[in-house]
Each structure stands twice: as structure tokens, then as C-alpha cells.
Amino acid sequence: MPRTSPYKIVLSGAEKSELDRRSRKYTLAYFLVQRAKIVLLAHEGLGNNEIAERLDTRREVVCFWRKRFFDQRMSGLEDRDRPGRPRVFPPRSGDGGKGTRV
């Protein structure tokens, strides 16, 4: 028996326009495009299982972003700061990352 989400997504005109723009933008990070598509499909009335199947992702991912958008609207789709020390990558040496041995 399919579950229905208690988080019904109804978008304003401005939200729908922005999410449409994000969902079609090639230069935007993949995960931001995916989140926009999740919300747009939820707005169309699709269930979490169907959205997950269409976007080739897990139902739990769809549930998470649907709820977060419902609670926080557009700002909920952005990444939050992560705890701990920020990652620091060493500069590349130009040798393909192999390092030079002396």
C-alpha cells in the first residue's frame, strides 16, 4: 500500500518560476537541480515513490527534501553548514596529483 506524504507542496508563482529555472540550468550543481525537480514533481501531486522512481533516487531522499521545503520553503533547499573543521585540500603540483619523489 503506497504511503501518501502529509507534506502537500503548493508553490507560489515566484517559487515555481525559480524552481523551473533551477531544474533546467546546466551550470547549476546536480544536487540543486535534483532538489528543484523533487519539489516541482511534489507540487504536481506525485507521491514520494513515483518521484524517486522518475529521478532515479531513493524515496528517503525525496521525503527529506519534500519535508524540508515544506518547513523552510526555498531556503530549505540550500546546503547547511556542516559541523567540524572545514575541508582543506592541498594545492595541486601540476603533476597529475602523483607527487614528486626526491
Can you describe what's shown?
This protein is mainly α and about 100 residues long. The N and C termini lie far apart (about 65 Å). Helix 2 packs antiparallel against helix 3, helix 2 crosses helix 4 and helix 3 crosses helix 4. The mean pLDDT is about 85. The protein is built from four helices and no strands.
| Mean pLDDT over the full residue set | 86
Strand content: under 5%
Gross morphology: elongated
SS-based class: mainly alpha
β-strand number: 0
Helix content percent band: 40-55%
Task: Supply the number of helical segments.
Answer: 4
Sheet having the most strands: none
Oligomer: single chain
The helix-strand sequence is: HHHH
- Computed Rg: 18 Å
> What's the end-to-end separation, in Å?
65 Å
Low-pLDDT ranges: none
List the topology elements.
Blueprint: H1 13-24, H2 30-43, H3 48-55, H4 59-72
Helix pairs in contact: 1-2, 2-3, 2-4, 3-4
List keywords for this structure.
102 residues, mainly alpha
A few lines on this structure:
The protein has 102 residues and is mostly helical. 47% of the residues lie in helices and 0% in strands. It contains four helices and no strands.
